[in-house]
Amino acid sequence: MRVLMEPRHGARYAEVLALARATENAGFEAFFRSDHLLGVDPDDPEYRPTDCWTTLAGLARETSRIRLGSLVTASTFRPPGLLATIVATVDEMSGGRVELGIGTGWYGREHDAFGLEFPTTRERFDRLEEVLAVLTGLWSTETGAAPGFSFEGEHFRIDDNRTPPRPTQLPGPPIIIGGAGPKRTPAIAARHAAEFNGALGGDLRERFATFDRACEAIGRDPANARHSAVLPVACGTTRADVDRRAEVIGSEFMRAHAAIGAPDHLVDRIGELAEIGADTVYLHVYDIHDLDQIALIGAEVLPHVPVAAQPETGVTS
After folding, report:
1. Which pTM was predicted?
2. 316 pLDDT exceeds 50?
């Protein structure tokens, strides 16, 4: 059971820290944040962007138990060698508690607003595959190896790196890949991901099955990967609390897939996801100031959710 922060109007670091500490105190296993520079409404004058990995670095030093990560980092935001170093640094700062959710990026207006290149969908997938090759290649290269790690791709090049970034978790922090795509996404996840995230909407059971088939096609046991789901949440003990929290959820699409109701309703929805095949659930929260909801779920929901045995997430490169 994890918390995923998606602030409607952005956030200051102090607000992110307060939510992460509330998550840890409530007994959740992990705290993740989105990696966005704009909100869903690109014209929202109140949106305050914060860099995902800078804030995770701060949380690495100001939390002690929960795992930390991004869902998801756009591979278009940072060159892969730099991203490998950033993630490895935060992993070391946290004592080995970091995970990297990564994808192609999808929000074109966000890229335009910050001067970031936003190629075609096909090229973004091509770039993502190269980014993953660089990340895993650098993390698994021994310091001082001669020759060092080199990579020659269409979009990225690494030349004889003999001093690669060294994360605490070896051969590297767990990688999370997910989405609704039926072909390239599950195939890439099968090769590189410790966790496949089925995203929102559509047939989650079929997405898990498609990922499992992609694993089997390359000789990987799909049981060695986590299968996760995202669940927007508005949980309360009174109708007024539930309605207020539901109103904050970002869109009608999100509300249509949310768990909106009392704690027992949330327990039931989590159980339904488990029956479909999810062993990891991210509760998607939008009001980052509503720490009472986190405490309520910790007290009234988590004790009633069976703890899933987590797989040994071996990855076939």
Report:
1. 0.95
2. no
